[in-house]
Structure formats: structure tokens, C-alpha cells
Design brief:
Strand content: 15-25%
Transmembrane segments: 12-31
Pfam family, one: RcpC
Distance between the termini: 191 Å
Oligomer: single chain
Domain Flp pilus assembly protein RcpC/CpaB: 117-218
Number of strands: 11
Order of helices and strands: HEEEEEEEHEHEEEH
Keywords: Membrane, Transmembrane, Transmembrane helix
Protein name: Flp pilus assembly protein CpaB
Largest sheet: 7 strands, antiparallel
């Protein structure tokens, strides 16, 4: 009887032990499965960072274009990495790079306030300015202007006062201390210089005009700018006005007509003077030679008379 009870107790103990072990294995399995799922979720939730790298080797000073860059994704964040190629396009490299080099901020050279605004084949030229030159002080960087030349009567230009337009739709880069990439719309009435973007073919012409006469800037309105920039306009004939109603025909730079950037320029390649204002030839003034007074004596010999010149000794005394 006792042995039967002992067997029954052992069976119960064994069953309870197996149940406890099974429960423990179940709990451990559940915990391991939950940890694995959490780890997988963490791996899925890790963000991917968008970056750009160079697809070829480039030297220092190279101008970056869209063709030089390719996108890539990475799990590692880099504070120097650029997420958009637009932040680098148009800028130059501070050092040479190889293929697969990451595009970072420290590779980009700082943009010069004026040089970065110049298109190819253009030059920045500064001219003297005052309140009248800057359209009453309201001229702003980024505006477009026509350059007018006033020639007053002088020995070179003649007797007529002449005014003409020598360039059109010229970009203003700076007015005094204001430049194109700075914010500010305050009136610059005391500006001493205006920096203009001039095509290299007419840059010497602007300097010659500045020294030959008086330059004046005429601002181009926004409506005309929108109309001109939306269509490729052909060069217009320069406006020439003389107070003597003398007709002066100007020539244009035909080689720039195909380029929309250059099509706004109209240039007079002739000399800054009217054809009718040629200097009149001066007549040589004859100066009388000084002659000393002479003395003559009349000699009468019969019917014959003769004049004899004598030395004027008394006039020298």
C-alpha cells in the first residue's frame, strides 16, 4: 500500500516538474521571439541618409556641375555631407578630389560677392557714380540699365552736343556697398561707384566713353525686363540724338545676335564724334619781317638822275 502511494506521489511530482519545465521553456521561447522581433524592427526603423559623391576625379578649382555627381544612401550621418546637389552646383572645389569622394561642405570654395555673378566672357567694370548716376539713389544690384553717353562741345567732338546709347540691358552687380547676393532695399544716395557686368568685347569702349564724356545710367523697367527675358530679342539700333539734328548712324555687334545673353547689347564701334564735326583747317598767319629804314641820295648829272643807297649810320646812334 505504501509503495503504491509512493509511486503515485512520484508520478505527481514528475508531472508537476515537467509542467514547470514546459512552462519555463514556453516563457523563454516567447521572450526570445519578442527580442528578435524588436531587433528586427529596430533594424528596419534605422534611417537612410541621402548623400552625393563624385563620379570622376576633378582638379582643384574645377566648377562643379550636375554631371559630376551621383546619389547614394548611407546609414551613417555626416554633418558635413550635402543632401542636395543644388548646394554645390556652380561652385568651385577647394582641392582636388578622386572618384567616389563624398560631397561635403569643406570641399566648396566660398562664392565671391561679384565674381560669382559674372557669366562667361563678361567683365566687372566700376564707373564713377553720384545720386544722379544711380537714378536718384534708387538703383539696386540686379537691376538692368542702359548706358548713355553725353558729349559736350569740345575740340575733339566738334561744336554740337551729342547724346547716344552705347549699351543696353546691362546688369548692375553692385551699387556702393550693396552687392547682388546681399539683402537690403535701402536707398543708396551716396554711392561713389557702380559696378556693371560688361561683355569683354565692349569693355574698352565703356572706359573710353567714361573718359571722353559724361556717362548716365537709365534704369530698365520690370515690365520690359520680363518681356525681354521671356523672348530672345534681336539687337535694337542705338538711339542717337544731336541738338543740331545731324543724323548719325551707328553700327551694332552682329556677332552677338545669336546669343540671348549678348543680344541686348548695341554698340557704336565708330569714334565718339559726329561726321560733320571735323576740325576746320587753320590758315597759317604770315608774320611781317622787320626791316630797318634805308637812306637814299639823288644824284643829278645833266639830264640823268640816279638814286644811291647810303648806310643809315645815324639811326643806329
Amino acid at each position: 500500500m505504501d509503495s503504491h502511494i509512493n509511486k503515485t506521489q512520484w508520478l505527481k511530482i514528475t508531472a508537476v516538474t515537467l509542467f514547470i519545465l514546459a512552462l519555463m521553456f514556453a516563457v523563454l521561447g516567447y521572450l526570445s521571439h519578442s527580442n528578435a522581433s524588436v531587433g528586427q524592427e529596430n533594424e528596419v526603423e534605422r534611417p537612410l541618409y541621402q548623400g552625393w559623391k563624385f563620379n570622376q576625379s576633378l582638379p582643384a578649382g574645377q566648377l562643379i556641375t550636375r554631371d559630376h555627381l551621383v546619389p547614394f544612401a548611407t546609414l551613417q550621418a555626416n554633418p558635413q555631407m550635402l543632401s542636395s546637389p543644388e548646394m554645390a552646383i556652380g561652385k568651385r572645389l577647394t582641392r582636388s578630389v578622386t572618384q567616389e569622394t563624398l560631397l561635403t561642405k569643406n570641399l566648396l570654395a566660398e562664392v565671391h560677392p561679384i565674381m560669382g555673378e559674372l557669366p562667361a566672357n563678361y567683365r566687372a567694370i566700376a564707373i564713377r557714380a553720384n545720386e544722379v548716376m544711380t537714378v536718384g539713389g534708387y538703383l539696386q544690384p540686379g537691376d538692368r540699365v542702359d548706358i548713355m553717353l553725353l558729349l559736350k562741345p569740345n575740340k575733339e567732338s566738334g561744336l554740337h552736343t551729342t547724346a547716344r546709347r552705347i549699351a543696353s540691358h546691362v546688369l548692375v552687380l553692385a551699387v556702393g556697398e550693396q552687392i547682388t547676393n546681399t539683402k537690403g532695399t535701402h536707398r543708396e544716395a551716396n554711392a561713389k561707384s557702380v559696378v556693371l557686368s560688361i561683355h569683354e568685347s565692349i569693355a574698352p569702349l565703356i572706359l573710353l566713353a567714361d573718359s571722353a564724356g559724361e556717362l548716365r545710367l537709365a534704369a530698365v523697367g520690370n515690365q520690359e525686363r520680363m518681356l525681354t527675358e521671356s523672348t530672345i530679342a534681336s539687337p535694337v539700333e542705338p538711339t542717337v540724338t544731336t541738338f543740331s539734328a545731324t543724323h548719325i548712324s551707328d553700327s551694332t555687334l552682329s556677332k552677338h545676335t545669336a546669343d540671348p545673353l549678348h543680344s541686348h547689347y548695341t554698340v557704336d564701334l565708330k569714334r565718339f564724334q559726329s561726321p560733320s564735326s571735323k576740325p576746320s583747317p587753320t590758315k597759317a598767319v604770315k608774320t611781317a619781317r622787320y626791316r630797318e629804314p634805308a637812306s637814299y641820295i639823288e644824284i643829278i648829272q645833266g639830264s640823268e638822275r640816279s638814286m644811291v643807297k647810303t648806310k643809315n649810320e645815324w639811326s643806329k646812334q
